[in-house]
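2024-03-11 09:14:02 INFO receiving multi-entity request
2024-03-11 09:14:02 INFO entity count = two
2024-03-11 09:14:03 INFO echoing inputs for audit
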Amino acid sequence: MSSSINWRAVRTRWHVCAGALLVCGGLLLAGRGHAADPAQDLRSVDQDVQALKKQLVDLNRDLFRLEEELLYPASTQVAVFLSLDVGTFFALDSVTLKVDDKEVANYLYTEREVQALHRGGVQKLFLGNLKAGEHELVAFFTGKGPHDRDYRRGTTLTFDKTIGAKYLELRISDRQAALQPEFVVRQWE
Amino acid sequence: MDRFARARRRALFETLLLLAAAVAGLLVFPIVSDASPAAGSTAPDFALKATDGRNLRLSEYRGDVVVLAFWASWCGPCRDTLAQLNALPAAAGDQGPVVLGVNLEGDDARAVSVAQALGLDFPTLLDSRQSVGRLYDVDRLPLTLLLDRDGVVRGAWSQQSVSGEEIARQIEELNL
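2024-03-11 09:21:47 INFO inference complete, emitting structure
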């Protein structure tokens, strides 16, 4: 017969007791909180969910920015946007974009997309990387011109890609004097 | 020594098993990946010109159940499928799916003529450059895809005609 204490068994029992106490305490607190004001609890959960959703949106935005910064660093980034001003003399159907004689975008516009452009929307048509130096951008616009005739026009811009990001805008507007559409490429400063 | 020999045999067996699994995977992959995009994946977005001159974009149908049917005039089962799909929205009522046909043969005039001859009520999109065919990896016709309201592929029928009842049943079963 040995009178030595089995410390391992004591420790295990102590852990079990402590765990049970913690669980009971937690359940009691949760029960009290629940019983206190269920409506407030619901509001609190709803606020937590909203906060979590906001965090998710912020995180998504940050990740998108990070992805763009990594894939298209400012030193090589070139973006081409398209906008429409009035556009009564031209019904846009598609745009083909070439950079240095290589097709980089070919976009077909649906009715809803054209309406969005008419309402002032600006579309990011192309985002890519170009090394510093001189480049040529050619855009072909296809659609219906005055008197519902098939219309295809091209416009060209030679631009100098410097260290910073380069933003170019294709703008379709109306030339009222000639009753014809006008296609302009301009660089954002 | 005996123990080492057993360990060597075991290692050899495991290596052979791994190699066999890799070979089996390589052989099975083309069969499994035949219908692309796979069920459960989001259908790639595209825009094409329809026979009536409108440009249609798939993503603008989010919120609707969409049946996407790839076809060509020389494909007999395609014609059966198109005839079945033509009756589908009318049979299903307001809750019926949107049907979009995608013609892949590159001859727009022929596609228009066949669509008219079949009396198709749903839009026929002209994939003259077969860019959408490549995007969807269509190598066998007909290919019919059922997309849910989020644009996720929930059913695919490749190299076989599919009946309107089967699609309607699938829509009901999946609670789309």
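2024-03-11 09:21:48 INFO post-check: The first strand of chain B starts at residue 47 and ends at 50.
2024-03-11 09:21:48 INFO post-check: The helical segments of chain B are 2-32, 76-92, 108-118, 131-135, 164-173.
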